[in-house]
Amino acid sequence: MSESITTLIATEAARLVVETGLEYGPAKSKAARGLGTRRVEMPSNEQVEDEVRSHIELFCADTQPAELAALREVAATWMARLAEFRPHLTGAAWRGTATRQSAVHIDLYCDDPKSAEIGLLNLGVNHDVDTLDNGRGEPVDVLTVSTPCPALGEPVTVHLFVRDRDDQRGALKPDARGRSWRGDLSALRRLMQRPHE
Questions:
Q1: Tell me: the pLDDT tens digits for 131-150?
Q2: For the whole prediction, is pTM greater than 0.85?
Q3: What range does the domain containing 169 cover?
């Protein structure tokens, strides 16, 4: 029974991710609450991503490729602007599951954690600053900007995660299926040449 509940959570979480732009963690929690269950094994991010891909194929196949391309263009622009901070695209825009509801997630690998914010100030970029848990109980600063996206006709949210330069060594480890969780600008440009990935 718990396996089928886990699958239901993954399916509902995927719908929330695609339709509302929720991140995987909050989407899984909201899906579990909506199904009236909390004490159950949560689906892995890979399971949710599989369901996201299925949902996109069923309901968004005609619009999602163009939306993904637009978000990757936004990411490439910001990665070029912030090249000194070793930017790596991550999240749905990197993994190929982004829709117009998705934010762009970019990891910045900095020698000094304040340098990225100073870089944005020097560029005259308005931004918000927040601190999140990195999943290991350590804080990570997140700089958030809103940027125009002419291809979508609306602004896009870009989250810049400020990470220690030493974290870059382990950042390119693949997932259980051999796919990387993030890539630099040259890797992104290669992906943009292959729009179905």
A1: 987 667 778 899 999 999 99
A2: yes
A3: 64-192
